[in-house]
UniProtKB/TrEMBL annotation, chain A:
One of its GO terms (molecular function) is ATP binding. SMART domains: AAA. Keywords: ATP-binding, Nucleotide-binding. It comes from Acidisoma silvae. This is Sugar ABC transporter ATP-binding protein. It comes from the Bacteria. Residues 18-259 form the ABC transporter domain. The keyword rRNA-binding does not apply.
From TrEMBL, chain B:
This is ABC transporter permease. The chain crosses the membrane at residues 45-61, 120-141, 153-171, 203-226, 257-276, 288-306, 313-335, 341-357. It is found in: Cell membrane. GO terms for molecular function: transmembrane transporter activity. It is a multi-pass membrane protein. One of its GO terms (cellular component) is plasma membrane. Its main location: membrane. Keywords: Cell membrane, Membrane, Transmembrane, Transmembrane helix. Residues 1-20 are annotated as: Disordered. It holds the Pfam family BPD_transp_2.
Length: 276, 366
């Protein structure tokens, strides 16, 4: 393990809301995470970068309760937690927008908004879904967010990629989570929609002090909204830096070099075109 | 119409609240588009049309003999038996699984009930409850093997099909046994007390239709469960996108196991009604053909084999179509064996129509 780690600015002494320490995870012979530790402070936006297959999605799926870690611990708001399923993580205030969006194509938009935390009413003593209430709330909420969805009754499989992404993001922030994990939330979005979601991220942090973990491939977007960057390489965190301590160019070269470490000054001098 | 299917597109809501045309949705205008829109919105619509046409055809072909209480009681009895199993398959098919073992439970559960009543003196009501529980336990076995041991349900349930069919044949050397009669249990669960000179408005007339009425009740309950409860929502989610459902916290394994249990219970219930009706427990009462006909009923009724969507009302109408073909063709003078040819053609036709309508819907965004 290489130690080119830059410490994050110490001025940031906000409490840690979610922490993962020394977590390892393998799938059979494939090692996805090796002794990974990540800290997320209150109101902070943390970018997770790394090549395909570096372990980013596995890392967030451990935090969201989808995967159980082989070793290591997760601490939420100072208490050690052991998530048996994403249900537990959601109950803990950790919401995740997965890369595949986890939307149910055959269900309506409003059912998708509320799945896992449905509203009920009693009909003859039976616990039935309160569809009218969920429909109304979904309609109202989506229009407050300024998300352009034609009709909350239509099934999700009739929406465009961008609309789906908006629904998934809306669902995750609806419950006012304390931690929001976004795995490539901008992948299917146009320029205007990306700006909208990024604006939403900043607004959430400002107004509700939500802590956010963001996986984005466009580095300029990282420098737009993130406070700190963690660089994951072959299942290890090899760089933990504040965005103020690193430039976009340095980050790009570091990831591009494939060395899994921050480049030394003399290496940085090499023009970018020379690196394969 | 709300409870009959899980299709959420209500035509009245295609307009958004402020009267603006919804973006990205094409409002049907021509008659063809309107019919296609109706067919794709209510999957039951096409099978309902088929059912009505068949009734008209057989009513004319049999000189008005089809729509008599005597004949209908036979058709509806078969509809009831098939329908109970078909709705069990609908729920499982929505989760993306299938149960081929239901016919063995259909034989096994009532046989166990009659054995308990005859040799141990257990009251029929109690014996029926115990055998229902046995059916549910077969469902647990199917579910656990499928979900925990990751054996595809197609294979799991072929295994349990032979296992329990073998057991019931082995218990008493393949001998049918006469079922005891204990009123009012028998009158409630299928014994037909109707005599040709009874009044049509009498209790005896109702007993001519008990199997069907039980199925009707089951269809209403399951339709409500599917479309109005969290369990139903999660059942659809499990079959529609199992990874996404897990990611969002749906306990997909449990949902599947519960639906296998439901299938086992419904198959046992259907078997009990069947046995009460004939006052005899036949170890070979349920053949795999019964299961396949029930699956056919579910599929022509509008349930997708790919999971994620299905309708129990459609399955009931599908069961009616299958039962009508089976009985009606004989009635108009065809060979009993011919009905399978029509059934086969009907399944193929319905499937082609289903797939094509969905394709059109996707392309035109009806």
């Amino acid at each position: 393990m290489l130690h080119n780690t830059i410490s994050p600015p110490l001025s940031n002494d906000a409490p840690v809301v979610l922490e993962m320490s020394h977590v390892s995870k393998s799938f059979g012979a494939v090692t996805a995470l090796v002794d990974v530790s990540v800290k997320l402070r209150k109101g902070e936006v943390l970018a997770l970068v790394g090549d395909n297959g570096a372990g980013k999605s596995t890392l967030i799926k451990v935090l969201s309760g989808y995967h159980k870690p082989d070793a290591g611990t997760i601490t939420s708001k100072g208490r050690p937690v052991r998530f048996q399923s994403p249900r537990d993580a959601r109950a803990e205030g950790i919401e995740t927008v997965y890369q595949d969006l986890a939307l149910i194509g055959d269900l309506s938009i409003y059912h998708n908004m509320f799945i896992g935390r449905e509203y009920h009413k009693r009909v003859l003593g039976m616990r039935m879904l309160d569809n009218d209430r969920m429909r109304g709330m979904a309609e109202e909420y989506l229009s407050t967010l300024g998300i352009n969805i034609p009709n909350v009754n239509s099934t999700v499989d009739r929406l465009s990629g961008g609309q789906r992404q908006c629904v998934a993001v809306a669902r995750s922030i609806y419950s006012s989570p304390s931690v929001l994990i976004l795995d490539e939330p901008l992948a299917a979005l146009g320029v205007r929609e990306s700006a909208h979601v990024l604006g939403l991220v900043q607004k959430l942090r400002r107004e509700r002090e939500v802590s956010i973990i963001l996986i984005v491939h466009n580095y300029s977007q990282i420098f737009e909204v993130c406070d700190r960057i963690n660089f994951l390489h072959s299942g290890e965190i090899v760089l933990d830096a504040a965005t103020s301590d690193i430039t976009e160019e340095e980050l790009t070269r570091t990831v591009k070099s494939g060395l899994g470490r921050l480049l030394r000054p003399e290496e940085r001098a090499v023009p970018m075109a020379a690196t394969p | 119409m709300g409870i009959v299917s899980n299709i959420k597109n209500n035509p009245g809501r295609l307009m958004s609240g402020n009267g603006k045309r919804s973006v990205g949705f094409h409002t049907p205008t021509t008659p063809v588009e309107k019919i296609l829109a109706l067919l794709s919105r209510y999957r039951e619509a096409s099978i309902l049309v088929v059912a009505i046409l068949l009734v008209i055809y057989f009513q004319i072909g049999s000189d008005g003999q089809f729509l008599t209480s005597q004949f209908l009681s036979v058709v509806l009895r078969d509809t009831g038996r098939l329908g109970l199993i078909a709705i069990a398959e609908v729920m499982l098919m929505i989760t993306g699984e299938i149960d081929l073992s239901v016919s063995s439970v259909f034989s096994f559960a009532p046989y166990a009930m009659v054995l308990m009543a005859n040799s141990l003196g257990v009251p029929l009501v109690l014996a029926a409850i115990i055998s229902l529980v046995m059916g549910v336990l077969v469902g647990v076995l199917n579910g656990v093997v499928t979900v925990r041991f990751r054996v595809p349900s197609l294979i799991t349930t072929v295994g349990t099909l032979f296992l329990f069919q073998g057991l019931v044949v082995w218990i008493n050397d393949s001998q049918p046994i006469v079922a005891p009669i204990q009123e009012p249990f028998n009158a409630f669960f299928g014994q037909n007390l109707f005599q040709p000179n009874d009044s049509l408005l009498s209790w005896h007339s109702v007993t001519a239709f008990t199997p069907f009425l039980w199925t009707l009740a089951a269809v209403v309950i399951i339709a409500l469960v599917l479309n109005r409860t969290t369990f139903g929502l999660h059942t659809i989610a499990t079959g529609s996108n199992i990874v996404g459902a897990r990611e969002i916290g749906v306990r997909t394994d449990r949902i599947k196991i519960y639906n296998f249990m439901l299938a086992g219970g419904l198959a046992a219930f259907a078997g009990i009604i069947n046995t009460v009706q004939f006052s005899s427990a036949d170890p070979q009462a349920g053949s795999p053909f019964l299961t396949l006909q029930a699956i056919a009923a579910a599929v022509i009724g509008g349930t997708s084999l790919l999971g994620g969507s299905g309708t129990v009302v459609g399955a009931l109408i599908g069961a009616f179509v299958v039962a009508t073909l089976n009985n009606g063709l004989v009635m108009v003078g065809a060979q009993a064996t011919v009905s399978d040819i029509y059934l086969g053609a009907a399944i193929l036709g319905a499937m082609i129509l289903n797939v094509q309508v969905n394709r059109l819907r996707a392309r035109r965004r009806i």
